[in-house]
Amino acid sequence: MIHVEDLTKYYGDLCAVDHINFDIRKGEILGLLGPNGAGKTTTLRMLTGYLRPTSGTIRVKDYTIEEHPVEIKKLLGYLPEAAPLYHDMLVYDYLDYVANMRELGRNRKPSRIRGMAEMCGLNEVMHQPIGELSKGYRQRVGLAHAMMSDPEILVLDEPTLGLDPNQIVEIRDIIRQIGREKTIILSTHILSEAEATCDRIVIISRGEIVADSSTESLKQAASGESLITISLKNARATSVKRELGSIDGILGLVPQDDEEGVLHVRLTCHPTIDLREEIYRKIRQTKWVLLEFRRETKTLENVFRELTRDQGELE
Predict the structure, then answer these.
(1) How many CB atoms lie within 10 A of CB 171?
(2) Contact partners, residue 235, CB within 8 Å, separation at least 6
(3) Are 255 and 241 contacting, i.e. CB atoms less than 8 angstroms apart?
(4) Residues 189 and 308: beta-carbon distance below 8 Å
(5) What's the confidence (pLDDT) of residue 314?
């Protein structure tokens, strides 16, 4: 549905987005991740026609951003990081104003406003000034604005930024509901949000795409090792190294500091071999007391940190 090819944006001599390529399928929720200054917002602004690319191609359905910017904008709903709301207006009046701008017409407008109020949970605040609403409710109003014309594609820039945990869950649920029918692109640096909401993740670092896959595929592809942590009583580091280090498939063994007679050991194991049974068998052959045995799984946060480790701020 959306095709991006060699998309590039320079601000003077600074390359904010560097020849990126990706496709977005119809009905997909795509998460655009990256540290602050990675180029996420610049990419979204080019996708929505707000910024002109220095070079490259953006195609939405059969339209290109250079030749058909108005047609593409009619397909999009856009919620920028700072929702452009009129704080002196009542919520209902604002949504009515947006519906008029979108030329919905008298017959369609009332039902669409009611539908957006229901979907975004605004019924209780429809006659309150926007400026008196909480940040969470203002984000809901922004979502209703972006969805008013029933666009095929919804673009959200940091939709949960500054919200408390309960508000984040509420906005996440709304996005999921919308995602049943729409193609959604959202940028975020909150990894739990991307993991909970998105079908696919694109990670940008220094204006370049460093990863593009599903959450699980990213974690599996980045996992070059398996980690096991054990805690032992009545054990010495030298004997633990000798006994456990002899097991085939253990790539590294690092004893941590003793803590009240307890030795914590971190084992790096081959990713394709499950060594838990062999490690347990070795421990049973000794006089050590096993207090803890834990296998660590690589999280999206681990992967993100590895892929963006040298990221500096660009914006």
Answers:
(1) 23
(2) 263, 286, 288
(3) yes
(4) no
(5) 37
